[in-house]
Amino acid sequence: MVDLRHESVDARLFHYTKERFSDPVTDRTYWTDVEFTDPLLVNPVTGVPNGICRWRAEWRFSLADADKLVIVNEARTYRAHGSSDLANQLFVEYTNWNLVQQRELIWTPLEA
Known about the structure:
Elements: E1 10-17, E2 30-32, H1 43-46, E3 55-62, H2 66-69, E4 70-77, E5 90-96, E6 105-109
Antiparallel strand pairs: 1-3, 2-5, 3-6, 4-5
């Protein structure tokens, strides 16, 4: 069973990107279980340079379907400098097995 470290019945994964997609999200796209609102904090999780990510896609699905929907990749520690609440937080990287349709996503602009 995929461990998404959530206690609710729904799993929530996030994808950070420069632009909002109009097409379905392709298979093998990277997701994380860490939710950010500041685009400057996204870099250590996504590897995308600071300031590039402007949108967050949230994908919710039933934990019962997790094994059919996502692949668990590596777990890493968030490397934040200073007194960030996120310093040393563990996050897991996931990829989706299949296309994720737009109707399954909640898009949120990141605060600049």
